[in-house]
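User: quick one, fold this
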Amino acid sequence: MRNSARYAAVRRMLLGTTAAAIGAVGMLMPLQGTAQTATVAPIAWTQPANLADLIEVVSPAVVKITATHTNKMAGNMPQGMLPDNLPEGPMGEMFKRFFDEQQGGGKQFRNSQPMQALGSGFIVDDSGIIVTNNHVVADADKLSVTLKDGREFTAKLLGVDPKTDLAVLKIDTDGKLPTVSWGNSEKLRVGDPVFAVGAPFGLTGSVTSGIVSARGRDIGAGPYDDFIQVDAPINKGNSGGPLFDAQGNVVGVNTAIYSPSGGSVGIGFSIPADLAKSIVSEIATDGQVERGWLGVSIQNITNDIAESLGLDKAKGVIVDSVQDNSPAKEAGVKSGDVIIGFGDKEINDVGDLTLAVADAEIGQNAEMKVYRAGKTVTLEPKIAKLKMDTTTAFAQQAQPEMNFDAMGLGLQAEGDSVVITSIDPESGAAEAGIQEGDIIISVNQKPVTSLSEVDDAVEQAKEAGRPSVLAQIERDGTHRFVAIPLS
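Assistant:
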């Protein structure tokens, strides 16, 4: 029986042979409008006319990885994996044999064959250190690596980092192995030529080329998303393989694709080398990754929030809450602070701060710039080590009623809490996503514990001529800032 999810209009898939759909995107439509002309200086296309020389140098260091799951039998694999419209002739027969092997070779073997997932990897140290994706090797009982020359080795898993989907393996050989070198992904520009080498569908040594389509993509894969988007064809089995620049340096680790069918449609994603190489080095040395921890819950600044704060533009991140006994708390960070700089980095969004804190030196003070009450303040939190079980704890609060025509809300007070009990469906609050049961924590960055305090804050906003108020809302144990338009 076919898996209906596989036939969804558009879905995002991890590239290992056992990967499943993990998301969907809308259809892109062409834009219509008046044609614009611009004068552009003629610049030659720098993509190599022939990649053959580069391929000869780098391909020996690219490997095929086979992950065997003895506790998962082939009979548990999704049915209908065989693509529709296979080509006629030998090529079609080859793909049919491949999928038959993946599913156990037929009914008589379906319940007795261990499941194998295929992926790619590349050697970064001649002693046998290999980089790949975590989702290629996750939960495998046996890992084997096949080199371009056909030699096969049993691999040891040195460690993984699920947050970035990276893994590091080690194989032992008698001599030195061919390697590839890390490049500088920070220098990549949209339009730069790139090429990928890997083992899609188990076809070892496959090469595809294209260009960088976009930088800094957040595809919802994890907290440290900063993907390079490429149009070089990438397919199942390319996971963990290298993305090379025009000089043959590794600038990315191929990890995911957008696809309606599981095959390449020209939208692939790679982990930038500048992020991957430090993580790989830590795993190879210590078997794990240590990251910095600040102890704040944050969200991006929207245009409405920026307007309500009097900011010129939607830039930086606003602090929703600060954890007790955290570096942020000890440094004096407050809810409502807008973080605009960390170390030597400018903070434009949540991703910028997340990556900057993760890379910060543990045990050292970091210079952090925040916008507070119309002024820029410099704080120096001492960065702590992120623990895997670190969570933010919020107290759930419960629910006489008062209507505020200015916000379109019905409010009820109980104890020190102000709860939203009704919402005018035609109000700006409804459009902003406010829900019944939400608790108002603060208005215009002033804590509110009574209806009168909410009323005072709204009146002050009106007198200041502001079109909206900035309310901090608690919902399901989490805090968020929402700009509520005033009528």
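User: anything notable?
Assistant: The domain at 401-485 is CATH 2.30.42.10 (Pdz3 Domain).
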